Amino acid sequence: MKNYLFLLSILLLVSSCKDKYTYGESITPSGYEYTVHTKGSGEKAKKGDFVKFSFEVIGSDSVSIQKSDSPENYPVVQIPMDDTEQAANPVMDVFLGAMVGDSMTVWMPIDSMPQPNPAFANLTYLKYVMTIKSITDETAFKAEEEAKKVEAAALAQVLQAKETEIAELVKITLFDYKKGKIKPEVTETGLKYFVHKQGTGEAARIGENVSVNYYGILASDGSMFDNSYKRGQPITFAVGKGAVIPGWDEALLMLPKGSEATLFIPSDLAYGAADRPGIPGGSELVFHVVVE
What we know:
Blueprint: H1 6-13, E1 26-27, E2 33-38, E3 50-59, E4 64-68, E5 76-78, H2 90-95, E6 103-109, E7 125-136, H3 138-178, E8 185-186, E9 192-197, E10 209-218, E11 224-227, H4 228-231, E12 235-238, H5 246-252, E13 260-265, E14 285-291
Antiparallel strand pairs: 1-2, 2-6, 3-4, 3-5, 3-7, 6-7, 8-9, 9-13, 10-11, 10-12, 10-14, 13-14
């Protein structure tokens, strides 16, 4: 699965720009233009602090490319202690001295990227809209991370204990599907899905991050090829952006948070004719999914 911070990493790695441009109201020390929309409050971020923030990447065509605006998926960066540790970059420029609640936009011209993604060929810039959610010193941050590890380990045990139960449920669902005992919904693309439990939350929009627990089997013989229960953690990704197979992208834009469903995905919405580990080419796939 693709790293949802891929576009953010571009901003963190680039440290110089080629041409002058006029977008923002101010210029960072590394030469990028930015605008501060709102000012927050509290102590200012210092070198060595960890900054947690939400962001959205918008192209010059005004299309949202990627976003992370849910608390469980906020990225975190540490402001370097020493300016010589890495090349200056616009994120650190605007985060140093900022406060919780600050929101700002940084403009990244495509021609300032050393190896721009071909998908950006028709764009002149990317616009990073960010809001600072928390500022934590190193000691407190490490304590928080350790607490998260303990919590994650406990969750992993719960999920791993469910693997056998979910495997049996998927087996029964596939049997009922083949016998015509259940009638899944069918979309125009050929995706079939059967909702076991309708969630009460909102369905994710394109570019938003979703977390999903899943159990995947082949429709042909019911053999399992992958599942998140064995690993003990859900998968998180930006939906509708090609980070997963097309059948997943389509289904997870329809399923509200809290939903439990079985997806019957034809090969053209999965991996097509290509062989994958445990998945012969042309296979119809069955996934039991829970939108967390």
